[in-house]
Here is the input.
Amino acid sequence: MKPASFMAWILLGFTLFVGLAQAERLPDADIVRLETQLQQLDADPALAGVAGLERLLARQSIQVLAKARTRDRPYALRIAELRVETARLMAEAVPLAEQSRTLDQERDAILLEASRRDAERARRESELLRLQTVAREEEAERNAVTGRRQQEKAALEAEAAKQEAEHLRKLAEARELEADLARKEAELASQISADSEPPAATALLDKQTRAGKTVYTLAGSAFASGKPSLSPIARDALGKLAAQLKHSKGKVRIEGYTDSQGNDVANQKLSLERAMAVRTTLMRWGIAASRLPTSGQGEDKPVSGNGTAAGRARNRRVEITVE
Amino acid sequence: MRLMTLSWTKIHLASGLLAFSTGLLAAEPLDGRMADAQAAIERAAQLPMRGNSVEMRNEAQRLLALARESALARKGKDAILHANEAGAAAELAVARYRYNLLRYEIENKTSRNTQLRRRMLVLPEGNTR
Here is the structure.
């Protein structure tokens, strides 16, 4: 064999060897599976451009797997699988990290909203407190105004009461003056009557029967106004009464009365003095003093109202009770 | 011996040369591979892993031990293969840890945000803390 021919045979054998070796390393199912996983990873737009180093290492490991000898192939396959899974996990971790940041931002937004609501609530509470304060101030102002008005009203009422009291006082004075004038008028009328036409003696003694006893009432006109002295006609009437009393032995009780004009002490004194004047007169006509118990009753036991002049005239009297 | 004459001696020499060149081409720095794998495992060991991450880290440690045994047995090729696999397993363990951690965080944050929203609904003007 020539040397050139020998070398040709060597080259041919080497070429066949290499070709057979390459034929054994054609992509098999595992390589296709792993490359498909990487392609899917690359096709995912959400994972584009991330985990570049891990993807490169995974591709290199697949290339190593493709070139690995039969003896080394299980190791190469295992390494390729580890690299591909690593690339997948590292790639998928990127959007997860982004999602984690988004959740943090969401939390911050929630807390911010909560803070905003807290601030809003605080503002509302503050506004409410302010309104309540204003309402209280207005209420206090209203109360103050009401108090002032009540004070003014009370002052007006006190002034009105004072004026009313003053009016009543003046009215009382007027009535007293009127009564005084009426009394004086009555006395004047009595004097005029006595002066113009002397009454009959019997007319001065009114005879009544009370509880089986005979009571003679000597009218007030028998006396001078405000004095205990008897008029002459009254003395004549008492003389006739004494003539009758001589026929009996019983007591003859004498009681003097006045109207309500003037003070009580004066009226008491005047009534007693008039009763004593009657007693003295009866004693002069022969009636024993022991038969003549005498007393002054003042303005007690009125027989008529003291509001009119006629009534007061009837109350001014001396009653002589024959027992 | 003539140069162009085929002989058994020449065939042996050619085969030996071919085998040597192939060995040189196939030879990889064993120590570097072992160091890379060791570094990857140490990085994984520093993380508080749980579940399938721990399983993969343990697998990487087992493969590294195999690589060391092979190196001691002067099986350099096997040692490199085991070291490469150990490094890849360690990196996968780290990837799984990060992925699982992110999933856990997302679940927690989603639940947390849901609770915050619920409190906002229950207490629309109250604080959420």
The mean pLDDT of chain A is 86. The longest strand of chain A covers residues 213-219.
